[in-house]
Amino acid sequence: MLSRSIFLKQAVKPILSKRLQSNAAFALCNQELMSKPLKEIDPELNNFLNLEKKRQRESLTLIASENFTSSVVFSLLGSEFQNKYSENRPNKRYYGGNEFIDQVELLCEARALKAFNLNPEEWGVNVQPLAGSTANLIAFSSVLEVGERLMGLDLPSGGHLTHGYQLPNGKKISGVSKYFTTMPYQLDPKTGLIDYETLSKTSQLFRPKVLVAGASAYARLIDYKKMREIANKVSKDCYLVTDMAHISGLVAAGTLPSPFEYSDIVTTTTHKSLRGPRGAMIFYRKGIRYTTKKGEAVKYDLEDRVNFSTFPQHQGGPFNHTIAALAAALQQTMTPAYKKYQEDVVANAAYLAEQLKQRGFELVSGGTDNHLVLIDLNNFEIDGARVEALLEKINISTNKNTVPTDKSALYPMGLRIGTPAMTTRNFGKEEFAKVAEYLEKGVLLSKKFKKIQDESPVKVKGHTAKLNEFKKLVSESDEVKQLAEEVKQFVTQFPMPGDL
């Protein structure tokens, strides 16, 4: 008779064998799922990826807030850094296994300070914010309590939603306007420039605790010294917060004036002119803020405030793959090639502005000092939404934008364009002269189709319905299709990052 142990071994052996076979089969399937290329695992999504690659390659990218990032940044965004969780600050994590993640984040911080020529004794930086809007909310919340006051450039004047935008009737559009009491300042309607004189007067009446310098559609230089003086007139406790999201690459290269000398806090995105991954940074002052009449030094306490506002108040774990990619992008800002690129961005924008003016375009403020041009379409009697829609059909990416005369951000009469992306693809003045030609053709075609739409006996109601009808007319036009092919043939002559 078999012993109990031998019997059990013989009985269990086939079960274990089947289980091992099953585990091996599962392991193989799991490895295939984790290792096969996208085109095999998800052909539907792979198709969309290929279509987007094709669209980018064959289009004129003129959206001022877009750029093409480098192959190095791409590789880090898809790296093993993506797998790691790391709440809190370096060397203070709530998770283990962050030895190298900590070193990468500290490296990124050091490079951020170096890129903008900042003394670590006077400035610190948090590189964890996931986006520019988040960074602004984090920064404002670090120095403001709910209901306290903030002033920022009005959206129709070129400001950003996160600078406290609300409708004239008081409806809160931005989360910032919901949590804090906000008041906008505007441009001088005659010059298209920030009206510093009126801002100085209204700020002393409103008495904000935060004054925001920065914009998303302002083509001129901001006078940071004057903004500092205005803040100081309000109160010694009024913080000047600068949002340099659009121009940070230009500032890093020394092409545009730096806001750091006069600001208490500086925020920026990292993917626009900076040409890094999609993320954000918050820089904050350290050291002595001011001296009282009694000679007592009042120090900044922004480091703990900003870091605590970032985590745990507004975010959980940072995106470590983004921070690594940002570190690489910041290293690139310190090269001669990068500085030359930023000089070309500004030169190309100025040249494009002049070319557009020669073709009858009106520009807010009459020109540009930075990377963008804001077109006022009122003299063409065509709105920005229709022009944007038609330009997209001829392979030109732009965005409709408010201009100072607009009453609504939904139906603006402006078009914002910029030069960073196409300068990355080696466009120079000759190419931007061609861009101006295509923009003129696009606007005139938009007028043509709007006239057809207006004269049609069949009338549709509502802005969305009218815009959809306009798009349908445009998509059926052979003239539009021919122009789209011409633009495609023109732009595909120029390399995309990674082609070399």
From TrEMBL:
It comes from the Eukaryota. The lineage of its organism: Eukaryota, Fungi, Dikarya, Ascomycota, Saccharomycotina. This is Serine hydroxymethyltransferase. Belongs to the SHMT family. GO terms for molecular function: glycine hydroxymethyltransferase activity; methyltransferase activity; pyridoxal phosphate binding. GO terms for cellular component: mitochondrion. PANTHER family: SERINE HYDROXYMETHYLTRANSFERASE, SERINE HYDROXYMETHYLTRANSFERASE, MITOCHONDRIAL. Keywords: Methyltransferase, Mitochondrion, One-carbon metabolism, Pyridoxal phosphate, Transferase, Transit peptide. Its main location: mitochondrion. Residues 38-439 form the Serine hydroxymethyltransferase-like domain. Pfam families: SHMT. Interconversion of serine and glycine. GO terms for biological process: glycine biosynthetic process from serine; methylation; tetrahydrofolate interconversion. It catalyses: (6R)-5,10-methylene-5,6,7,8-tetrahydrofolate + glycine + H2O = (6S)-5,6,7,8-tetrahydrofolate + L-serine. Its cofactor is pyridoxal 5'-phosphate. HAMAP family: SHMT. It is an enzyme of class 2 (transferase). Pathway: One-carbon metabolism; tetrahydrofolate interconversion. Its EC number is 2.1.2.1. The modification N6-(pyridoxal phosphate)lysine is found at residue 272. It comes from Hanseniaspora valbyensis NRRL Y-1626. It is found in: Mitochondrion.
